[in-house]
Each structure stands twice: as C-alpha cells, then as structure tokens.
Amino acid sequence: VQLQASGGGLVQAGGSLRLSCAASGSIFSMNYMGWYRQAPGKERELVACIVSGGYTTYADSVKGRFTISRDNAKNTLYLQMNSLKPEDTAVYYCSGYVNYYQREYWGQGTLVTVSS
Question: Could you report the per-residue pLDDT of 19-55, keeping only the tens digit for each?
Fold first, then answer.
C-alpha cells in the first residue's frame, strides 16, 4: 500500500485547509493512522492520530482546531485544519500501521505554509 498526501498550500493565518491521504489499497486493516509534521530545523512530531475503533488523539498545540478522520470506503485519511497559525507551517506527512504485519507506511508529505 502506498500513501499519497495532498491538500497543502499557502494560507493566511486564521484560514483553513483540508489535507487528504489517499491509499493505493485498503486502509481497513490499518489499526493506526496519523498525521505528523516537520517544521524547518525541528524534529518530526505527531499532530493527530486515529485508531481502528475511531479513538483520536491530538497534540496540545492543535486541539480544538484540527480534526482527523478516516473514510475506509474511500481509503482516505483526512486532516481538517482550522484557525491556522504561522507556527503550523510545516511539511505534513501521513502514516499508517498494520499490527498483523507489524508494518508501517508513510506518505511523501505535503507542505503547509501559513502567513501572518
């Protein structure tokens, strides 16, 4: 399975973007899916994740502003980002993990730039 992230771009502070992560195959078996980001000069960090039962976790910095969701029928993971801030500027990556195979998958990243 390959993951393809899209939806990044340039937006003004306070604006919104919706990231998508399309899988080349079924994501039904992915027990864990998440969005990570890496800002220039910083380490990659977890933004949000969702597990098979629908339980979600968010970084404190994005709580109340970002929403992660998955559509197994469309084999796509989403990240709705509202009230964007300049500090949200980063390359965003999607990831998935299948417990049965103990295998991790990563998308190629999509750049989000928030101007002040």
Answer: 999 999 888 889 999 999 999 999 999 999 999 889 9
Using CA atoms, how far residue 114 sits from 2, 22, 25, 29, in Å, is 28, 23, 32, 34
Task: State which H helix or E strand residue 89 sits in.
Answer: none
List the beta strands (DSSP E) in 1-116: 3-6, 9-12, 17-23, 32-38, 45-51, 56-58, 66-71, 76-81, 90-98, 103-106, 110-115
Handedness of CA 43, 111, 74, 57 (dihedral sign): positive
Look up residue 97 and give its amino acid.
Answer: Y
Strand partners, 80: 18, 67
- The total of other beta-carbon atoms located within 10 Å of residue 12's CB is 10
d(CA 93, CA 57) in angstroms, rounded, equals 16
Residues 6+ apart with CB under 8 A from 10: 113, 115
